[in-house]
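Model: You mentioned two targets. I'll fold them one after the other.
Researcher: Yes, keep them separate.
Model: Target one:
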Amino acid sequence: MSVCRAGYDDFRIKAHGKLDEYLSHGNKVFGGVSFATALACLGLENPAAFAVPSLVFVALLWGGGPRDSWPYLNFLRRTGDPAMKPLSMLRRNHVAVAGWLFLGMVALGVVPR
């Protein structure tokens, strides 16, 4: 194995670690914040009116994410790593997506008060 290949493999391993950190952070923080906010909105007189700005806020918060992970995630995306495929990311980020969808359903008035 060449030195370049060894460095590439080490970087890929580190990038997968950063991906795991990113997904864990998203599931814990954004999933929890979305779910808790949705429950809080349901306790109000007009839940949809408060859930819509909360939905936008959580989306903006989620888009920022841990910025130190971005170069590693971009590397995995550019190299076509299977872990970065949309369905794989969706499956691994299931808690955050579920919390955000619950908040969205409150914002749309699908969840009764």
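Model: Target two:
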Amino acid sequence: MIIVTTEIVVNKVRPSQIFDWIMNLTPEKYRQWDPKAHVGKIKRPALLKEGDKFWFEEMIDEYKVSFKWKIIKIDKPNLFLMKAIVPFPIYLQLSFLPFNEDTKVIHELRIGFNFFGLEEIVDYFINFFIMPEKKITAIKKHATEEFQNLEKIL
């Protein structure tokens, strides 16, 4: 399994503020969050709950991300866990942890299966076809930029 973890410190913003921002994200707020990457659309219920499905698209460098997601777990105000609705397992977990007067955001993307004895082969194909190093770098940069943008918004 490939795990891409990005830790971001959002200065002078509490975990509950970030959590509430995401819970109540409108298309306008979505574009405001990261105008460079969030050029696409977002379709979601007004208020997210476990089991809900939503869709968004964004451009991360030259990579288009356009998935439908299912909310697996919500733990207010510290965690969102979602799974892409695709034949291949892709999970995104967002954690919001108090860090002095700030919030540490942990953006964790997990891709792949846990096959005993076959992980290295599956991971090789994921790295080669789905997640080359250039894409991982772009994802980490995007996660950092979008969460640091919340310092100005919230």
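Researcher: Noted. Anything on target two?
Model: Residues 34 and 146 are 5 Å apart (CA to CA).
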